[in-house]
Design brief:
The structure holds three protein chains of three kinds. Chain A is mostly helical. Chain A is built from eight helices and no strands. Classes of the chains: A mainly alpha, B mainly alpha, C alpha/beta.
C-alpha cells in the first residue's frame, strides 16, 4: 500500500491508458458490428458465416492473437486495438442480430404498415426494441476488452497490464497487487454499470 | 512466405521443445478443467436443488467471470509462487465461474410442470435429479465446460509467464528476443489447439443432448 | 374409496384457509368432479390426496388407509396423476414415459412392453407408430393421451386429474372428453377430476362437488344438481339454461311417448340427446319428431309438450 501512495500518478496514467484503449476498441467494434448484425438479422443465409467467423476469432487465445499480429502490425496500441475488435465482434454482432430478430414482429409489422421506410423502421422501432440485448452484448464485450487490454501491455500497448508485467518481471509484489486489483475493479465497475443500463433499457422496452 | 518457412525450420530444429511445451500446455489445461469441474458441477447442482446462498454465490461467480484472467494469474505469483501448481490453481479458479453458472442455470431451468408430473407419479427426489433434471441439464453444463475449456487454454498461454510452461513460453521468448518465428511457434499451435478443443466440445455437446430435445 | 374429513390448509401469508374443514366421500368406481371458482380450494384438495401438498389438519383415507401414515412416494406410485400441462419427460420416448411407474415398481420388462402397447391402443394411439416418438413431435391432444396412458400404466385404483383438458383446443377437447369417458368407465377406477368448466363437469361426472371458500357446498349427481341446487350460489354457478342442460343429460329414448308420429315427421335416433330433439323441433318448426332405434324401427314420438312435461315431472319428482 505504501508503494501505491508513492506512485499513484503512475497508476492513474496506466488506468487512463487502459480506459482509452478499451474505449476506442469498443467503439470501433460497435461501428463494425452494427452493419454486420443488421445484415445477419435481415439475411439468414449470411448469419451462419458471420457468426461462424466471429465465433472462431473469439476462440483464439488472447496472447496468441496479439502475437500473430506482431509480424503484421508490429507492437503498440494498434496491434492491441485490432485484436480487441476481433475478439469483441462476436458478442456484439450476435447480440445485435438476436436483439433485432427478437423485436416483437407485430410491432415491426405495425410500423411498416404505417408507411415507414425500412430504414425508419430499423432506426425508430427495431433498434430501440433491441437495446436490452445490445446493451447486454456491450456489457460482455466491454469486460472482454478490458481483460484483453491487460494482456496487451505485453505488446507495449500500455494500460494496467504494464504494472502487472513489471511487477512479475522484478518480483515486486505491490505492483502486481495494484495492477491486478485495479484491473479487476475497473472490470467489475463497468460490468455493474452496464448491468444497470441493461435493466433500464429492459424496463423501457416493455 | 519466408516467415512460414523460418517457422517450420524452427519447429524442426527444436521439435522436442515444441512437443514438450505442447504436452505441458494440454496437461495444464486439461487438469485445470477437470479440477474446476469437480468443484463447480457439484456446487452448481447443490445450489440448484437447495436454493441456499444462491444470490451470494452466483454474484461471486459473475464477478469471477468478469475479472481479467491475467490479473488472477499474476496474483498467483506473490501468493503461491511460480510453476505448475500455482498455474493450475489459478487456471482452475478462472474456469469455475462459467461451469458453475451454467450448471446452476441448467438444473433450475428444467420445466416446472415436468418436475411436478415426475413427483406426482411417484419418483423420489434423487430419482428426479438423476432421471429428469440431469439429462435435461447436460447440454447447458457442457456449454459451460466448452466456454471454460477455451478460457483455460487461453489462460495457459499466459501461464507461461508464471512458470507454467506451454506454448506461451515461445511467445514470451519470441517477443523478448524479437524472433518472429519463435513467436509464431507459440502462437499458431496455441490457436489451433483452442479451435480444435472448441470444435470437439461443440460436437460433444451435440452428442450428449438427449435426442428428444435436440433442435436440429 | 376416498374419504376426506375435516381437511384444512392455509398457505403462509394468506388471510384465510384455502381449504376450510372440507368433507367429502367418494365411493369406489365413481368419477367425482371438483369444481368451483378460482381459489375455492379444488386443486389444493386434489393435490392433498396424493400429498403433493401436505394438509394442515384433517383426515384423508384412500382404500381405508390413512395417507398421512404412508410414505408419500409409495402412495403416489399407486395413484394415477394427470395434470393440465401433461409434463411428459421431453428427453424420453413415449414408451419410456409410459413405462416410468411400472419400472419403479419393478415389473418385468416383457410385462412392461405389453402394457405399453395395450395402453397406447387404449388411448387411441397406434403403438408401432407412437412408441418411439418424442413428446415434442406430438400435438397437445396426443400428449395428453400419453399422459393418461402413463397415469394408467401401473393400473392404479385411483386417478387424480387436474384440469386435464384445459390446455387443449375446444374442438379436440370434446373428442378427448368423450373418448376418456368411455375408457375410464370401462376401467372402473375411482377418479377425482378438477375442472372449472361446468359443462365438462356435467358431462363427465357421476357426481359433482361444488366448492366455495374451501368447503363443499353441494355434492350430487348432475341431474340432481340441476334439478335441486341447494342455494343461490350453486344455482347461479350452474348457469343459465339449466333446463337445457338437463335436457342434454337425457336421451330421446327417455322422453319419447309411445305411438307413431304423424306422417312426414323428421326422425331422430333414440340415443341422441333430448336437447338435440328440442333443437330439431325448433329448427324444423314441425310439431312432432319420430324416434327410431338402432335398427330403424319406430319406437315413439316427441313433441314440445312431451319435453316440457318431462322437465316439469322430473322437477317435482325427485
Amino acid at each position: 500500500m505504501n508503494w501505491f501512495m508513492r506512485n499513484w500518478e503512475n497508476v492513474i496514467v496506466a488506468l487512463w491508458q487502459h480506459i482509452a484503449i478499451s474505449g476506442s476498441a469498443l467503439l470501433i467494434s460497435l461501428v463494425v458490428a452494427f452493419p454486420l448484425g443488421v445484415v445477419a438479422a435481415r439475411h439468414p443465409k449470411t448469419r451462419g458465416i458471420i457468426l461462424g467467423v466471429t465465433s472462431t476469432l473469439y476462440t483464439i487465445p488472447t496472447m496468441a492473437l496479439l502475437a500473430l499480429l506482431i509480424p503484421i502490425v508490429g507492437l503498440g496500441r494498434t496491434n492491441a486495438i485490432i485484436a480487441m475488435v476481433m475478439f469483441s465482434l462476436l458478442v456484439l454482432t450476435r447480440n445485435i442480430t438476436a436483439g433485432i430478430q427478437g423485436a416483437a414482429p407485430d410491432i415491426v409489422d405495425a410500423a411498416r404498415g404505417t408507411g415507414m421506410t425500412p430504414w425508419q423502421v430499423l432506426v425508430q422501432v427495431e433498434l430501440p426494441l433491441a437495446m436490452p440485448a445490445i446493451v447486454a452484448g456491450l456489457r460482455v464485450a466491454a469486460v472482454t476488452v478490458i481483460s484483453v487490454t491487460v494482456v496487451a501491455a505485453y505488446v507495449n500497448a500500455g494500460g494496467l497490464g504494464t504494472l502487472i508485467f513489471e511487477g512479475m518481471a522484478s518480483d515486486h509484489a505491490p505492483k502486481i497487487w495494484v495492477g491486478a486489483l485495479t484491473a479487476c475493479a475497473l472490470s467489475v465497475i463497468v460490468d455493474v454499470s452496464l448491468a444497470r443500463a441493461e435493466t433500464f433499457f429492459g424496463r423501457r422496452a416493455l | 512466405m519466408s516467415l512460414l518457412i523460418e517457422t517450420l525450420d524452427f519447429i524442426q530444429n527444436n521439435s522436442d521443445r515444441v512437443i514438450d511445451a505442447g504436452i505441458r500446455h494440454v496437461n495444464l489445461s486439461f487438469s485445470a478443467l477437470i479440477l474446476a469441474a469437480l468443484v463447480a458441477i457439484p456446487v452448481g447442482i447443490w445450489l440448484a436443488l437447495t436454493g441456499r446462498y444462491v444470490l451470494l454465490i452466483i454474484n461471486i461467480a459473475n464477478v469471477g467471470r468478469t475479472v481479467p484472467s491475467l490479473a488472477i494469474l499474476a496474483l498467483a505469483m506473490p501468493l503461491l509462487g511460480t510453476g505448475f501448481t500455482p498455474s493450475l490453481l489459478a487456471l482452475s479458479l478462472l474456469a469455475v465461474p462459467p461451469i458453475l453458472i451454467n450448471t446452476y442455470v441448467g438444473f433450475t431451468g428444467v420445466d416446472a410442470d415436468t418436475i411436478d408430473a415426475a413427483r406426482g407419479i411417484g419418483l423420489r427426489e434423487a430419482q428426479i435429479t438423476m432421471q429428469v433434471r440431469l439429462p435435461l441439464a447436460l447440454p447447458m453444463v457442457f456449454a459451460g465446460l466448452r466456454t471454460a475449456a477455451v478460457q483455460v487454454i487461453s489462460g495457459a498461454v499466459l501461464a507461461a509467464y508464471i512458470g507454467g510452461g506451454g506454448f506461451g513460453e515461445f511467445i514470451t521468448s519470441g517477443v523478448a528476443m524479437m524472433t518472429i518465428p519463435m513467436l509464431l511457434v507459440g502462437a499458431i499451435p496455441a490457436t489451433i489447439l483452442a479451435i480444435a478443443v472448441d470444435t470437439l466440445f461443440s460436437a460433444l455437446q451435440k452428442t450428449i443432448t438427449p435426442k428428444g430435445i435436440r433442435t436440429s | 374409496m376416498i374419504r376426506i374429513k375435516g381437511l384444512k390448509k392455509q398457505f403462509a401469508g394468506a388471510e384465510r384457509p384455502v381449504v376450510n374443514d372440507l368433507d367429502l366421500d367418494i365411493p369406489e368406481g365413481e368419477l367425482c368432479v371438483l369444481i368451483g371458482l378460482s381459489g375455492c380450494g379444488k386443486t389444493t384438495t386434489l393435490r392433498m390426496i396424493n400429498r403433493m401438498i401436505e394438509a394442515d389438519s384433517g383426515l384423508i383415507e384412500v382404500s381405508s388407509r390413512d395417507i398421512s401414515r404412508q410414505d408419500p412416494v409409495e402412495l403416489r406410485r399407486h395413484i394415477g396423476y394427470v395434470i393440465q400441462q401433461v409434463g411428459l419427460f421431453p428427453h424420453q420416448h413415449i414408451a419410456d414415459n409410459i413405462a416410468t411407474v411400472p419400472k419403479l415398481l419393478g415389473w418385468k420388462p416383457a410385462r412392461i412392453q405389453n402394457r405399453i402397447d395395450e395402453l397406447l391402443s387404449l388411448v387411441g394411439l397406434e403403438p408401432a407408430q407412437y412408441r418411439h416418438r418424442f413428446p415434442r413431435e406430438l400435438s397437445g391432444g396426443q400428449r395428453q393421451r400419453v399422459g393418461v396412458a402413463r397415469a394408467l400404466a401401473a393400473d392404479p385404483p385411483v386417478m387424480l386429474m387436474d384440469e386435464p383438458f384445459g390446455a387443449i383446443d375446444p374442438i379436440n377437447r370434446v373428442n378427448l372428453q368423450d373418448e376418456f369417458l368411455n375408457i375410464l368407465r370401462k376401467l372402473k377406477k375411482t377418479i377425482v377430476l378438477v375442472t372449472h368448466d361446468i359443462d365438462e363437469a356435467l358431462k363427465m361426472g357421476d357426481r359433482i362437488a361444488i366448492l366455495n371458500e374451501g368447503k363443499v357446498l353441494q355434492v350430487a349427481s348432475p341431474d340432481e344438481l340441476l334439478n335441486r341446487p341447494i342455494n343461490e350460489f350453486v344455482a347461479s354457478f350452474l348457469g343459465n339454461g339449466r333446463s337445457l342442460k338437463r335436457l342434454s343429460l337425457l336421451c330421446a329414448n327417455d322422453v319419447c311417448i309411445s305411438g307413431p308420429p304423424i306422417a312426414g315427421s323428421s326422425m331422430i335416433a333414440a340415443n341422441s340427446s333430448a336437447r338435440t330433439a328440442l333443437s330439431m323441433l325448433l329448427e324444423s318448426g314441425s310439431k312432432m319428431l319420430g324416434v327410431s332405434d338402432a335398427s330403424n324401427t319406430v319406437i315413439g314420438h316427441i313433441t314440445m309438450e312431451t319435453l316440457q312435461a318431462r322437465l316439469a315431472r322430473r322437477e317435482s319428482n325427485d
